């Protein structure tokens, strides 16, 4: 078989409307030149399928909740909150911006907070996120003649002014331990949530043993307050907030990393089996560095205790170089890809012109497959929609190639 031959697959599975990516996505993707040539075959990477498992759970919902928000953790929050409230009162300020404390400030009415009160406050906070009203005060308003409204039962546990006071001074971190002088590793915004974040991730993988198939993607945590770490991603359901990188299965988040604008995760490199020349002097390149965004996939997979997985990604991450590295590490991968992610010149030409290398038009409802030169990655192109996909695992029985 010629190295330029293109395999065609037709399984009539692309009859849905074309997918349109979100416009104006500010997250940068790699711009990698296409690879010359292609392989004459594909060496499949076999992974044994396994389903996920859920370890025994507590009998009571409250006990399950307290696995993620344990009493010991809440007790530390109570200590942090008390320290912060007394620090503000002793220094005559009412917030972290050193606003002077006035005689009418609510801080003068601070009566302290107990662990039980902290749980009540947290429960109300969760309730407010589920049962929406026009304003915060509306939750505490009782129905009256001519003013029909729901009566929220939590109001008998905490008055509005106390809830607002606790909300203003509640701290999940020790304000004296935030390293604001050097935020290159982790900004103070994320330092404040790191202790609880690490605990939730630890409990998550203790309760849930992931199966073979996982996905890596970016997610947004809604936040519209003042912070240098908020990200604007136009076209997303949640356009403004904190961006995190997540590895998940069945909608269950297993691990995540904070997206730090000026200090991303450490890039990783892919070792080349055959050194390739580059530059004007033709120096031999023995490894290719991945972008910081692509490296997120590797870092998240390494945080799991299970060894082998099949990870699904979108075109923000996918590239032949990343899939080669994942294969070297024992992971299979599937994902959509962009024309500038390092695919072969033949596939890039097909994507841009809509024609085969011999000038013939693309056949409707067909899938064109080209292996990379090292036979490690399949590059596929379904004609409808024109969507580039990468694979590093064998196609299933229903998707056999027609040679």
Entry summary:
With 403 residues, this protein is α+β, with helices and mostly antiparallel strands. It folds into two domains: 7-52 and 265-399, no CATH class; 61-169, no CATH class.
Q: What structural class should be given to the helix and strand makeup?
A: alpha+beta
The low-pLDDT segments are 1-27, 396-403
The gyration radius over C-alpha positions equals 27 Å
- One letter per element, helices H and strands E, the order comes to EEHHHHHEEEEEEEHEHEHEEE
> How many alpha or pi helices?
8
**Strand segment count:** 14
- Measured by DSSP, the beta-strand proportion falls in 15-25%
For the largest beta-sheet, the strand count, sense and barrel status come to: 10 strands, mixed
Coarse shape: elongated
Number of domains: 2
Helical proportion? Answer: 25-40%
Termini separation: 9 Å
Q: What is the overall pLDDT average?
A: 80
Please tell me about this protein's structure:
With 403 residues, this protein is an alpha+beta fold. It has 2 domains: 7-52 and 265-399, no CATH class; 61-169, no CATH class. It has 8 helices and 14 strands. The strands form 3 sheets. Strands 1, 4, 5, 6, 7, 10, 11, 12, 13 and 14 form a 10-stranded mixed beta sheet that branches.
